[in-house]
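Researcher: I'm preparing a figure for a lab meeting and need a structural model of a single chain. I don't have an experimental structure, so a prediction will have to do for now. The sequence is pasted below. Please return the structure as tokens so I can convert it later.
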Amino acid sequence: MTMLSRRSLFAAAAAVSLAVGIAPAQAQDTIKLGALATLEGAFAVLGQDGMRGVKLALQQHDYMAGGKKIELIEGSSDASPDSAIRAARKLVEQDNVDILVGPLSGSEGLAVKDYAKEHPGTTFVNGTSAAQDTTLRDPAENFFRFTTDGAQWQAGLGEYAYKEKGYEKVVVVAEDYSFPYTQVLGFMNDFCQLGGKVVDKFWVPIGNKDYSSIVYSIPEDIDAIYVALGGADAVNFLTQYEQAGGAKPMIGGSITVDQTVLGTKGKRRDYLVGTPSAGPIADNWQNEEWQSFVKAYQEAFPDGFPSPSLFAHGYYISTKAVLESLDAVNGDLSNNQAKLREYMASHEFDTPTGKVHLDQNRQAVADIFLTEVAMKEDGTLYNEVVEVIPQVNQTLGMDREAFLAMGPVSRDNPSCP
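Model: Understood. Here is the structure written out token by token.
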């Protein structure tokens, strides 16, 4: 072999070694963000809007954070815990995401919280899953929820329904899983203390299509129906109740009168006008930050809803929290993402609906909006602000030990016959 040949060989070998050495550094210049939402089943329309929230936050951040490129990888579930775990497992174990935002639905969140404990090297940030015990009991140290839970969403609604609407006797129609249980607690907490009565509860599975037996079982001697259904389930019940001649006024769970229901095309549901509800957003809030968010959403997604749903809002906030935290720690994910998590746990930031900070269980404390459904001149329905309830915590203002002593929410807890 000639001297020139040896030099060429050595140069080639050095180039290979250099390339191998550089590859890991180049890989670290990209952070993989997984987004898990219900893109299948009865809640598919909710998940689609949740993904819009993720993408809007990323667009506004130019798909960069902490000086690194953000690669988005989507995961799909159908609102069942098993499907959420399958999707999370693919994102974490096959796609190797660094951070996972999601899931959307209540029981999914409980399952993913437990899954997070098995993967301490990955940071999990809730999407809009709002079951209470995702963070209240036995929380995971690497699971953060920058959105409020279903009970927080109902703050003030029970008192408003009892005192302002004059509703004293109600029945509940709700899906049979952890999130509606949490919503019912939030409503009943004030309603029952004031003297209100819940005379019956009708629980249905997600994806139920025939509500005739429930519609005809609703007693006449009640004042209103508290409905905690979402997506296609809410549309089906409301349509069938109206078609059967039902005339009792509604009290809306947060997702029952969300834009994913109010914005549904087809027959206008005039009877929902005046329905009180409460939740993390209000469509007509005149706050400058909210109006800017609505405009940005409308411009980015002309095929979306007239106003962003609480799912778009929740996923947007969660993604925004991740991106701002990555900026603050310069994208440092070393040592099981210790710096990132330390910063996230203390991160207080502005959102389109006010300030958000986390409690000791990494659970959001934030403003809640008491609303009533109203109708615009063009016939579209929206949630009009009645009152903004500031910085509602997870125990609804109660002493934590006393709140925990009430026990986990369920079909039967709480009760006020």
